[in-house]
Every structure is written in C-alpha cells, then in structure tokens.
Amino acid sequence: xxxxILVALENSxxxxxxxxxxxxxxxxxxxxxxxxxxxxGWAARHFDDLKLAESxxxxxxxxxxxxLAAKIRASGLGVEVELALGNPPTExxxxxxxxxxxLIAMASHGHKxxxxxxxxxxxxxxxxxxxxxxxxxxxxxxxG
Length: 144
Known about the structure:
Blueprint: E1 4-9, H1 15-29, E2 32-39, H2 42-45, H3 47-50, H4 56-73, E3 79-85, H5 88-98, E4 103-108, H6 113-119, H7 122-127, E5 134-138
Parallel strand pairs: 1-2, 1-4, 2-3, 4-5
C-alpha cells in the first residue's frame, strides 16, 4: 500500500511516539522511510539568500537525523534523511511531493483550541496543502 513514507521529525520527545509506529508500518508494507526535519531558525530561513554557514542547531539536527536513521537501518529498513530549511509546513509538503512520498507521518502535540489558534498547527497547514495521506500519531505527554 505505502512504498515511500515521509516522517516529519521535530527532534523532540514527540518523535519517541511517532518513530515506533512508522517503523512498524514500514516493515508491514515494505516501505522505505524518508526522515525529514525542518530547521526553521533565522539562519535556516536565510541560509541560501545570505550564503550562511550551518548553525550549531542545524548541525545538531543533521546529527540527530543521521543517528536515528542508523538505528532504523539496523532493523533492516531502507532510510534516507533530509534536513530541510524554512517554513515547516511548506517544506514538509514540498519534500513529500518532490521525493514521491505516498504517506506523510507526523506527531501531534495535543494542543487545545486556544493553543492551536495562537501557535498554529503544522499538521493543519500540511493537510490543507497536499493530497498525500497523513498519519498523525499522538505525541507522548511529559510530566512537567
């Protein structure tokens, strides 16, 4: 059913809920994974325009993607990584479409209405801008 799954990662605890679900799905379907994190800090958003060097945050994000990919590859799955730069919803949709993905997997935070109004919802923006199916996995809530 699914052959190429984009996994939108945040480099946060939400990924701990998403990754096990999507790796099991990929094993069942025989799908390859594309792990994507969108760096959206100032340096990332102006990287190409100003010909900037990678920020420490971007280097850490790349290391996170590479480390997670190595763990998943060890389980026998095909995995690629991409560190995208810019606006997360825009880059997730652009990457999924340009790389021929047939499923986008994302973690939700469980914001309530007020949180979504003020913070916006990456998931909501992605779903309104693509015809690719989206799998949403509830992120783990951490005790504060």
